[in-house]
Amino acid sequence: MNIKEKVKEYKKELLLKKVSELFEKEGFDQIKMVDIAKYCGISVGALYKLFPSKEDLFYDYIQYQIDLFYKQLQERFNVVKTPKQRLKLFIDMMFHTFTSKKRLFMDTAAGDPLFFAKLALKRDNPAKKIYKLLEREFEKLENRKISDTKQLAILFKSFLYGYIEYWLIHDQPIKTCSEEALELFLHGIVKE
Question: Which of 73, 101, 106, 162 has a C-alpha 20 to 30 A away from that of 172?
Answer without folding.
Answer: 73
